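Mods, move this if it's the wrong board.
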Amino acid sequence: MTESTNPQLPTNTDNLAEVLSYLTTLVNDPDLGLAEIATPLDDPAPSHAPVDDSADETKPVSEPVSHNSWNPQALFALDEVTIVEQKALMLLEHLPGAEVERTRDLIQINYNGTEGIVLFVTPEALELRLPTVEWTAGSYAPKPSSKLWKRLQWNQVWANELPDLLQATLTARRREFRNCRYCHKPFAIEHMFSKTACHSCASLHEGVMF
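Not the wrong board. Structure tokens:
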């Protein structure tokens, strides 16, 4: 083995370039072996924790219950829940499977399709709405929409009253359905030509042109 010459510590330790040159020489000296034990700063430290070979990798990992567990669209920031989000989350507890849409200040909840209800949630009020269609100009085609049934300020609503309030809105929607006297199928009033005939049957049996 060749005799190594230990580098001399710089006399002027205030000179950064000389200090870095000295440290580099130490690390690269093969007789000192520092390069073999040096670890880059971005490499994680080796773990000395024992490995549990008995752990079942197929076992589901339990996660804490969060609002997103029943809000698959992840529209709410869990760490910064606003007033309108608090109100919407309170309503969604009673409406499993509901669909949620939102803008910054308004959350729309659609429940049970055309046979269900629509809710507009704002920080100040709750709008209970019923599904309907809007017949467009030009092509005269039906477009999904909703109409106001009742609007309540939040200071008029207690949390324990919400289930009854939502049920009353659903009942109001069910009362809008009629059976066609020709095909005997139930239709909402927006799809009825009259109280007794749906659009299709009115055209087929009564000569109505749309």
